[in-house]
Design goal:
Blueprint lengths: L11 H17 L13 H9 L3 H10 L1 H4 L3 H21 L5 H14 L3 H15 L18
Helix pairs in contact: 1-5, 2-3, 2-5, 3-6, 5-6, 5-7, 6-7
Length: about 150
């Protein structure tokens, strides 16, 4: 697992998640801007994706009671974190996993209650399926809109 220099044992994916949590909090608005930890294991997701099991793992995460019991804003925030991790996996993984990651992003779009987030997930899925993962800007969060 790659570790960033000067960041102790934090992996690249953990750093991306923290970045997206911060950016998501900014876009959600001050009412819901509490820090939210992911309810999923990023390492397990990464391993599943490397073995072409992304879609099944995402289904498990979305069906978990942790996610199902969340308020829409919290669930959308978790979906944003999942999308960020999937994009990073696509960027660093082999091309043979891109289609499955794209399908997983479409599944995230189906679970979102925010129209802008749905559009972002679908655009990300299209970019991944076309192999344009290097061009996709993961600094633009898949955050929920402040409505």
């Amino acid at each position: 697992m790659p570790v960033l220099p000067g960041h102790g044992r934090k992996t690249v994916i953990e750093m991306v998640i923290r970045k997206f949590m911060f950016l998501s909090a900014l876009l959600i608005g001050s009412g819901a801007a509490h820090s939210q930890d992911s309810v999923f294991d990023t390492t397990a997701l990464q391993k599943a994706c490397q073995q072409q099991g992304c879609h099944a793992r995402i289904e498990q995460i979305l069906a978990s009671s942790d996610v199902a019991a969340m308020a829409p804003e919290e669930r959308n925030s978790q979906l944003a974190l999942l999308a960020a991790v999937l994009i990073e996996i696509a960027k660093t993984g082999p091309a043979n996993i891109w289609d499955e990651i794209a399908r997983s992003l479409v599944m995230l779009a189906e679970f979102s209650t925010d129209d802008l987030q749905v559009l972002a997930f679908r655009n990300a899925a299209l970019a991944v399926s076309r192999g344009e993962v290097g061009l996709f800007d993961t600094t633009s969060p898949f955050a929920v809109s402040p409505n």
